[in-house]
Amino acid sequence: MDTINKTRHTSYVLPACPVEATLELIGGKWKGIVLFYLLDGRLRFSELKRKIGCVTQRMLTKQLRELEASGLVNRIVYAEVPPRVEYELTKEGKSLEPVLQLLKQWGEEHAMNLIAERQQTVVTEQASE
Questions:
Q1: Which of 5, 21, 72, 94 minimizes the number of CB atoms within 10 Å of its CB?
Q2: How far apart are CA 109 and CA 114, in angstroms?
Q3: Per its UniProt record, what PROSITE patterns does this chain match (predicted)?
Q4: What would the pLDDT profile of 23-79 be if each residue is shown by its tens digit?
């Protein structure tokens, strides 16, 4: 979903609206990972791409633009040849640190086991076909 130009709703009504609004800003396959790596400080585009690994340049650019438009990431362009661009979290982006750390902790405690169980179920289902 293109979250720069289009939101899911024009109004967010309680009780779940803050969760939905937050997920609209940070949701997506790569945004959480980008935000997590930027917790350590400013990174060049190539450094960020290397840390993430399997994201395409086009997708990373799109996600960074959306995060910048949302006010969570600053883009710093240096007037050099070749041009150098770095990204850092804004004050609002940094305020997500406890949330991102809790997601990391939950992933360590639960997600890896759930993914392994899901994969085992798929293998079992395929073997029984």
A1: 5
A2: 10
A3: HTH_HXLR (PS51118)
A4: 889 998 999 999 999 999 999 999 999 999 999 999 999 999 999 999 999 999 999
Torsional class of 12: left (φ above 0), alpha (ψ -120 to 50), beta (otherwise): beta
* Closest alpha carbon to 99 in 53, 42, 32: 32
- State the residue for tokens 């609002």: 92
Residue 6 CA from chain centroid, whole number: 18
Q: What is the CATH number of domain 17-95?
A: 1.10.10.10
Dihedral over Cα of 85, 69, 5, 16: its sign: positive
| Under 8 Å between Cβ of 54 and 60 | no
Q: Is 86 helix (H, G, I), strand (E, B) or coil?
A: strand
Give CA–CA dist 118/74, Å, rounded. 37
Cβ neighbours, 10 Å, residue 127: 7
Residue with tokens 């803050």: 18
Q: Where are the domains of the chain?
A: 17-95
The predicted model scores a pTM of 0.80
